[in-house]
Amino acid sequence: MEATGASEDCCVKVAVHVRPLIGDEKLQGCKDCVTVIQGKPQVQIGTHSFTFDHVYGSTGSPSSSMFEECIVPLVDGLFQGYNATVLAYGQTGSGKTYTMGTSLKDGCQTGIIPLVMNALFSKIESLKHQIEFQLHVSFIEILKEEVRDLLDPTSLNKADTANGNTGKVNVPGKPLIQIRESSNGVITLAGSTEVGVSTLKEMAAYLEQGSLSRATGSTNMNNQSSRSHAIFTITLEQMHKANPISGDGSLNDIMSEGYLCAKLHLVDLAGSERAKRTGSDGMRFKEGVHINKGLLALGNVISALGDEKKRKEGVHVPYRDSKLTRLLQDSLGGNSRTVMIACISP
Ligand code: ADP
Ligand code: MG
After folding, report:
1. Which ligand is nearest to the CA of 214?
2. What is the pTM of this model?
3. Contact present, 238 and 261 (Cβ < 8 Å)
4. Among 16, 21, 22, which is best to mutate for testing ligand 1, by the most ligand atoms less than 8 A from CB?
5. Is the CB of residue 317 less than 8 Å from the CB of residue 305?
6. How far is the CA of 324 from the centre of ligand 1 (A)?
7. How far is the CA of 106 from the centre of ligand 2 (A)?
8. How far is CA 118 from its chain centroid?
């Protein structure tokens, strides 16, 4: 996941987020073994150093500037019709959920998703006289190449009766969620819950509901959260009112279009550790590949997209290799913007 001197206009950016040592680690006398090179987006481990677009935490830039630098441009782009994806990558325990802000117990104020919601609604508030907005959210999870709806009202109650089996995944009578591509390349999820929201409070409630559904599932099913990808998607539709009151310069682009629709995917990826640990024996490897099909495919897609030379040569981008990349296909590459946040523990 090294970013090789990415240029300004590159559509894929990679940031590293170093979390501080936490309680247990301090008690065990662990020491930081990651140093951040002052004034550079570079981390050093032993004699190796790695350069990224940004480095946050553990005396790199403060984590609080991550949102401004990496995420705000994506939220602004959403209003201009650009799809975007934010991915949190890293081992279990490295801070992915904390960074995204899907954890219910902590990080709720500083996590990316709550900050995105705040930014989104304050921007909508300031534009609502000229533009009519419609917001939808969906929250799904991909586990072993199956898409699960975290906002499904019928599966919510079944959570505590699941008894460790996969009852939640296949609710009888409910068809599995299918990924479809329309003729204009827009990816949709057939069969998942997409709810309309009009207030910040509503959106936050759905985030919480989905996180809860994921958390309950993971205690019932042997910590599946570290093996699944959770994707919170915000879809923003804009419709210009017939007689816009004032012509704010920056809005001219949108004005001529009339209607715009864009989506932002906020992804808490499965723990990356199994991708490395596998490899030796056949059975394990197979399992690892299956579980991490999404991570492997994502790596391949990102490297195909991030490499300008490959892109110019028209190298095939293997979106179809996994559900994860297929689902994100219209929001990775092309005109869309992608930020990968690699979370590491020190
Ligand atoms: P992951 O989702 O990658 O498995 P978590 O987000 O659950 O990891 O983080 C593991 C632990 O580390 C949690 O207890 C969390 O509160 C803590 N943590 C993670 N990132 C930070 C941070 N930047 N500052 C303080 N604590 C953090
Ligand atoms: Mg997590």
Report:
1. 2
2. 0.85
3. yes
4. 22
5. yes
6. 23
7. 12
8. 17
292 lines ligand 1 (CB under 6 A): no
Tens-digit pLDDT string for the chain (346 aa): 444 443 445 588 999 999 999 888 888 888 888 888 888 899 988 888 899 999 998 877 888 899 999 999 999 999 999 999 999 999 988 999 999 988 765 545 678 999 999 999 999 999 999 999 999 999 999 988 889 999 987 765 444 444 444 444 444 456 678 999 988 889 998 889 999 999 999 999 999 999 888 877 777 766 667 788 999 999 999 998 765 455 555 555 555 558 999 999 999 998 887 545 544 455 555 555 555 788 889 988 988 887 778 777 878 889 999 999 999 999 998 889 999 999 998 8
Q: DSSP string spanning 131-166?
A: EEEEEEEEEEEEETTEEEETT-HHHHGGGGG-TTSS
- Ligand 1 in reach of 63 Cβ (< 6 A): yes
Residue type at 294 in one-letter notation? G
For ligand 1, the distance from its centroid to the CA atom of residue 142, given in whole angstroms, is: 21
Distance in Å, CA 142 to ligand 2 centroid: 14
Ligand 2 is an ion; its neighbours by CB within 5 Å are 96-97
Pocket mutation for ligand 1, best pick of 19, 32, 99, 115 (most atoms within 8 Å of C-beta) = 19
